[in-house]
Amino acid sequence: MSPSEALEKAQIEPENLNNNTVRITAGQFELFSNAAMQELDDEALGWFTRRLPWGSYGMLARASLTSPTLGVALKRWCRHHNLLTDDIHLSLHDSQGMACLTLEERRPLAEAQREFCVVSVLRNALGLACWLIDSRIPLTATTWAFASPSHHDSYRVLFEGRTQFNAPNHSLQFDAGYLQLLLRRDEAALQRMLERALLLTVRPYRRDRLLVERVRQALIENPEDCHNAEALASRLNLSPRSLHRQLKEENASLQHLKDSVRRDLALTQLQRTPRPIKQIAQAVGFRNDKSFIRAFKGWMGVTPEEFRNAPNQDRLAANRASR
Question: H or E segment at 160?
Fold first, then answer.
């Protein structure tokens, strides 16, 4: 079918189609894809051996909407998607704290459409998952079973984390903690989303409902990053500005989280080990013991040595934490 009408709706000049230096906006992509899917009556745009009629992906979203958690919702989405086509098979697994959404090719996809198909399906799944829990889901890695394309830099825009080409399968990998988050959407929200559902495939989500816990975990595992917001942000695949902004949206601050983690680590060290104060100061991220002693007294009302020698350490810690 001629793409002329869809190109006109999206205000894309036909002579630019073969110009690799030209870019389109998210809005143009949305308009063009929407027009093409309706004209073809195929939301898969010809990827599969049978069409996915208009409304198929809306049906998948609706079938997952009543799930209690994101993990249940994604497993339902995969199962129902597998009923629509035999060409690909989607599955969700989690192990050792990591979740993996995998796309397996069951039939050879046309080479000209293969990359567009698997990238779009997985990016659509990620966008829907983020929408369902109203949270960004930062990826730790993506894998692709095809060779690195000439436009491989574009993957940094669509997907976070490490990208591996020529992998055994296509997959998205992320912290399994997101699977436990409750869904935050209802039927009314779904109806509004479906009016512009394609934007979920293009625009990344910004808010991260697990960010506070991810920051705490990074600080626990890497106390040396307590000194440096840039290093901590880099570990979380964020800019320092984004890190501070997103924490503020969650009514948290980096300094408060640093103090909380340092205090808890210090209490554990003082209660369970005979290590010298200077070593504990370094272990929890302080440059010297004087700074540590001053901070600890501000947290607990006593010096580290006084706390260690106190007969009622647990009560003292509990009383201070409740303030």
Answer: none
- Write the CA distances from 53 to 29, 40, 76, 107, integer angstroms: 19, 8, 19, 20
CATH 3.60.150.10 fits 211-321, yes or no: no
Contact of 100 with 94, CB cutoff 8 Å:
yes
Question: Distance between CA 165 and CA 156 in Å, rounded?
Answer: 13
User: Of all residues in the chain, what percent carry a pLDDT higher than 90?
Assistant: 54
| Helix ranges restricted to H, the chain | 4-9, 26-40, 56-64, 70-84, 111-133, 155-158, 187-194, 199-202, 211-221, 229-235, 240-249, 254-272, 277-283, 289-300, 304-309, 313-321
The answer to whether the CB of 43 falls within 8 A of the CB of 53 is: yes
Length reported for the chain? 323
Q: How far apart are CA 217 and CA 176, in angstroms?
A: 14
Contacts of 30 (CB under 8 A, 6+ apart): 196, 198, 199, 202
CB-CB contact of 59 with 110 (8 Å): no
* pLDDT tens-digit readout, 156-214: 888 988 999 999 999 999 999 999 999 999 999 999 888 888 878 777 777 777 788 88
Q: Report whether pLDDT(261) > 80.
A: yes
Which residues are bridge partners to 100 per DSSP? 93, 173
- Across residues 20-24, what is the average pLDDT? 87
**Bridge partners of 248?**
none
Please tell me the distance from the alpha carbon of residue 184 to that of residue 196, in angstroms, as a whole number: 18
From the CA atom positions of the chain, what is the Rg in Å? Answer: 25
Q: Tokens 């889901």 correspond to what residue?
A: 137
- Whether 55 contacts 38, CB under 8 Å: no
Residue 244 has pLDDT above 70, yes or no: yes
Looking at residue 213, what is its pLDDT?
A: 80
Residues of the chain with CATH 1.10.10.60: 211-321
